[in-house]
Amino acid sequence: MYCFLRYEGIRSMNIALINCSTGNYEIAIKKKIVLGGLFPPLGLLYLGKILENNNHHVEVFDGNAEQISEDKIKKIAEKNDVVGLTVYSQPKDKEFALNISKIIRETNPKIKLIIGGPHVSLLTERAFKEFNADIAVRGPGETVIASLMDSIEMIKPIENLPGVCYKKDNKIIHNLKENKIENLDDIPFPARHLTDKYTYGYIMNTKYGKGKVASILTSRGCPHRCSFCGLKAHIPHYQKRSVENITKEIDEIVSQGYKTIIFSDDNFLEDRIRIEKIMDHIIENHPNLSIWIDEARADSGDKTLYEKMKKAGVEIIHFGIESGNQEVLNYYNKKLKIENVKKTIKLSNKMGFLSIGSFILGAPIETEEHLNQTLKYALSLPLDLVSFLVLRYVYGSDIWYEAEKAGKINYEKDGHFIYADSSKDLGNFTTEELINFTERAYKRFYYNPSLWFRVFFKSIRNMNPKLLFVGLKFLFKNAN
Q1: Which domain-ending residue is among 124, 156, 174?
Q2: Are both 236 and 93 inside the same structural domain?
Q3: For residue 220, how many other CB atoms are within 10 A of its CB?
Q4: Residue 34 half-sphere exposure toward CB, CA atoms < 13 A
Q5: Parent domain of 467
Q6: Mind giving me the DSSP string for 400-425?
Q7: pTM, to two decimals
Q8: Rounded to the nearest 5°, which phi and psi values hold at 26?
């Protein structure tokens, strides 16, 4: 159990936590869409709760839910003692975070700047230097945030905090001891009121979620190791909360007036028995909830489970399919079978769920035949929305390390985020060729008449015309 007690005589501080996301979703590198706020930044809300438990005043600012202007950043810097930034690895998001840190430093040189998040966990010391931070945190912030505030308040050195990077006597000190939450049930529930000023549940800038929208994490990390994914590099352990702890939080969420809950785990449907218990609790106690599943295995299609999910109020599931070719799926170490994916998507459609699929194009072994097979496969599935993405070599992923070992990638020269590109010996196609293929794939998918018949009848069946609006926005965006 973590200790959240405070020392006597320590003053409360004003603390701002900023989710440094641009709010844009990339659909073809050069083509981006503004999604609107999908769900709240849970990581910051967990930190906010711990800080409030320690009597600090906390504000949260979410780049996904608002366009954070330069004037607002200056006001944040002027009125706060500490600013914490969540930094992501995507180039535009990282650039945005760097700009925020620069403005904060220029506006209030005395402010304490703390950085964390996926990018900082991957490249802690580099990020510490780049952002001119006072403190960088590798791994979960919940384990150290209360102690960090105590150290800042008492102006004493930070000692013995795992994963923390700071400067002492002009030297960078980085505690390399593993920073890990031993039991997820020990962490207090997020301070959701900190994002009451925002509205969530948007898809394609259309308010799709019913009423107030909350998100929840029932686990952290993923038990699988897909070769293109860098998650294991910054969340190395797969941990699950107890069903009792999860259902208690669901009860609290409903008591606070939320009508939609988004399960934002990296792999929510991993443990069928556990998920059935959660769905049973919702069916018995909260029959009018709307439920979204942000990430799910594309081979999770069990009829009994899906029927229970339907009864519990599940409306949307997003599946990571990645390819329509078994050879490419095997290369990605997805451990997916093409036939099981089709079974799952058909079942999801039969249940009336809004089914979303994502595909990645440009694996090193991928040929033109593979690409065409993936497009043909995507068109054969009863999906309602899709994304076709160019493969990204992300620092920390297995394909990154393979390319680095082969001398194809050099962090100092290439950075931490590189698109597949035959000119760099990273695949069989140039980035431009892959971009062009994704654009053709979008048009083939969204100009498909069978899609619109399906979407139309599903909208009627679910009594929700918003699905048509979302689909049309995707259509018009990809027509340009």
Answers
A1: 174
A2: no
A3: 18
A4: 9
A5: 209-479
A6: HHHHHHTTS--HHHH-SEEE-BGGGT
A7: 0.93
A8: -85, 125
